[in-house]
DNA sequence: GATGAATGAGTTTTCATTCAT
DNA sequence: CATGAATGAAAACTCATTCAT
């Protein structure tokens, strides 16, 4: 960065981006508790206290990060909507699952949204987030609608909400830490951890029955 | 408590129970971060340092709490299995959903199991937990089998895993904090937060299609 | 141990011995800070609180341990006095050094005697220790006297005190921890750590000049 | 201090100095165990947690303190080297002993260097210390060389190492706590505690025989 | 007399947050 | 406006010591 003080909007945005990137890097390797101002400050090119000018809590940073992830996901969904004329149920489920595979952090962040993120967030920030989030939902509806044109509105909504809840619950059970894996191995049961992509697709197939 | 020092096994169990209860009380009102030795110590009738005799980390306490919740849930599933000869798909889904309604903390704890609980837990404790958890799964299988006798093994397993992932994801979106609700309201969208019990039942109905 | 309560003197002695042994084991592997009631309690066959019946502080245990080490050393010196009729200066120094080599813990304990051991000790215990210690000094005098019969009393005393101070200071610089060694290596200087036995002997040779 | 925040290098040094001074004060009156962050924090004009900015462990503080003591000692040795053209053996020993008398804490710290200081120190810090320490040794060599010009290199080295080990061992036995003195008195033996300065000189006289 | 549960005091350590520069 | 030094609060953790059983 070749400026010392962020005067213009663009510079402010650049700083914000750097903070978000630092936050993302930390979260990608560790867990929520590893994300704190000290760590973020050390990852950015500027000082910890400077971050306060842009965000008041780490939760607000994570909320912005989540929003970005949501947008990326929406983008992917949109892209796949546009690039196919029609899809078999199976092909749809597979492709839809793929959009989640490519945006895994979205699922991690979503799962802590309700318990952690909102905890230390201003109501304004949270409201803004919710508004954004809901505004983004249309492309998802349109996607399902396109490939299941005869499905009712209601069943499309049912598919979307059921599948998203499902995928939210599926994520952690398919992404176990080495320690978890070791514990399962030692437990004596021969439980095989599913592959996220295929389990996701399978679940979607079942849930997609509502679209018939 | 009418003893000062836990000498017999029963008394030790009593102490453990008190710790677990304190932990449960704190977690029921707040979130994981509110659960720490200081808070637990203040909720019990004995000193903070005494807790170290029974548990080395708060995660191990929560893991035990989760195990209890799992057992309670299993107990409820069993009870409903035994108390009905046969059930319609809808009745089954409603009753099955009800077992979750009555054990909501199970879902909260489950959702942090993968990210938080295992973090500061000895491998031994975690292994023991996994062993217990897996040993408990049979009654669930038997329950579904009883009411869907013609369903294949595979589809029963699919129902169980899909529905449990679903319900795990559903829980937080139907249990929003006042702040979340306010934020949604302020966002301008008229999104209605579903009732957990009915949303759960609805989702199960969809997923139960795999049992046909 | 096949008794639950130490009634007889012999049993009391046996307990004391066990405590001392535990203490020695811990000190041999670690440092003074590793020696505490908790650790000692865990190394013995009885409870931590039972130790209070025999010793009030860990320093008193260490003081007893030191006394034992002194006695062992004296014993070795005596043995070598008795087993030789006469010795050359060099042979004497080598053999004398050897008595220290075989009682290295004595040197470690001695070096903390003044700073640590006396700190948390009753005056009675300390007095008793001093009395014992001084009573033990005669054999050392006799040893030097035997092999240097023409040396004056004064020069014998000078040799004893100078050599014992020397050996006390020598010990740590010839027994470096792996970390110290690594640090020296990394420092770039090619300092070679002396071997205790030979450095000790060499120093004694110099100091023994007083006996000529 | 007329600044609230150490911004310039000089101010940072000033803080460091204050920490070292606090540490020195505590150590001069008590023992190593009395030196801890809490105590140091209370002795300085700033908060305990601020010290962490300057030192990570108390051992690193003590190591720096030791280094300062070494430098002071070296300075004194140098000074006496420069201020005399030649010295009799006795005068040399007396003056050399005097450099130790004036830097007694050096001896206390040295005696715990091997057991305590290195324990909780980063390898880097320790390496840096060793490097400094060794770099400082030349003036000592030069001092002995100047006053014993005909002595061989080897015997000069022998004098230096033997005398330094000796003085290290001598220190504690001539600096007994009131309690130790009382215990000796009560023991009944009429052991007279030597005066450090003269005992040191006497020992040096003996050891200096190697320089003849 | 022996035990080990319970306690409390003491220390370390880590961060969010403030504020002098 | 940016910084990073300083702070204080909070939590973890460990033992010596006491005391009910």
Give the largest interface: C-D, 52 and 53 residues
Q: Can you tell me the CATH topology of the largest domain in chain A?
A: Tetracycline Repressor, domain 2
Total tally of structural domains of chain A: 2
Proportion in β-strands of chain A = under 5%
**How many strand elements of chain A?**
0
Instruction: Calculate the mean pLDDT score of chain A and round it.
Output: 92
Task: Assign the structural class of chain A, choosing from mainly alpha, mainly beta, alpha/beta, alpha+beta, or little secondary structure.
Answer: mainly alpha
**How many DSSP H or I helices of chain A?**
11
CATH architecture of the largest domain in chain A: Orthogonal Bundle
What radius of gyration of chain A results from the CA coordinates? 20 Å
Helix percentage range of chain A: 55-70%
- Give the CATH level 1 class of the largest domain in chain A: Mainly Alpha
Low-confidence regions of chain A? none
Find the CATH superfamily of the largest domain in chain A.
Tetracycline Repressor, domain 2
Q: Whole-Å distance between the termini of chain A?
A: 54 Å
Report the oligomer.
homotetramer
Shape of chain A: globular
| Sheet having the most strands of chain A | none
Q: Spell out the helices and strands of chain A N to C.
A: HHHHHHHHHHH
Account of the protein in words:
- With 212 residues, chain A is an all-alpha fold.
- The first copy, chain A, has two domains: 1-55, Arc Repressor Mutant, subunit A, CATH 1.10.10; 58-211, Tetracycline Repressor, domain 2, CATH 1.10.357.
- Chain A is built from eleven helices and no strands.
- The first copy, chain A, has helices at residues 9-29, 37-43, 48-51, 58-83, 89-101, 104-113, 123-135, 138-147, 153-174, 178-187, 196-207.
- In chain A, helix 4 (58-83) runs antiparallel to helix 5, helix 4 (58-83) packs parallel to helix 8 and helix 5 crosses helix 11.
- The model of chain A has no long low-confidence stretch (mean pLDDT 92).
- Chains in contact: A-B, C-D.
- At the A-B interface, helix 6, helix 7, helix 9, helix 10 and helix 11 of A face helix 6, helix 7, helix 9, helix 10 and helix 11 of B.
- Chain A binds a DNA duplex (21 and 21 nucleotides) through residues 4-7, 36-38, 41, 46-50, 52-53, 57-58.
């Amino acid at each position: 960065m070749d400026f010392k003080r962020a005067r213009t909007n663009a510079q402010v945005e650049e700083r914000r981006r750097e903070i978000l990137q630092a936050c993302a890097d930390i979260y990608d390797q560790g867990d929520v508790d590893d994300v704190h101002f000290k760590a973020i400050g050390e990852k950015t090119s500027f000082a910890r206290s400077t971050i306060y000018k842009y965000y008041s809590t780490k939760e607000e940073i994570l909320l912005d990060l989540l929003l970005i992830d949501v947008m990326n996901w929406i983008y992917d969904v949109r892209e796949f909507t546009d690039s196919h004329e029609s899809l078999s149920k199976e092909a749809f489920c597979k492709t839809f699952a793929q959009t989640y595979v490519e945006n895994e952090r979205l699922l991690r962040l979503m799962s802590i949204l309700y318990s952690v993120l909102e905890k230390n967030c201003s109501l304004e920030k949270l409201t803004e987030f919710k508004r954004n989030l809901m505004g983004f939902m249309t492309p998802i509806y349109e996607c399902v609608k396109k490939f299941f044109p005869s499905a009712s509105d209601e069943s499309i909504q049912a598919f979307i909400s059921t599948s998203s809840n499902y995928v939210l619950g599926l994520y952690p059970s398919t992404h176990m830490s080495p320690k978890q894996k070791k514990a399962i191995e030692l437990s004596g049961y021969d439980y095989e951890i599913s592959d996220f992509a295929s389990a996701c697709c399978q679940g979607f197939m079942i849930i997609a029955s509502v679209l018939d």
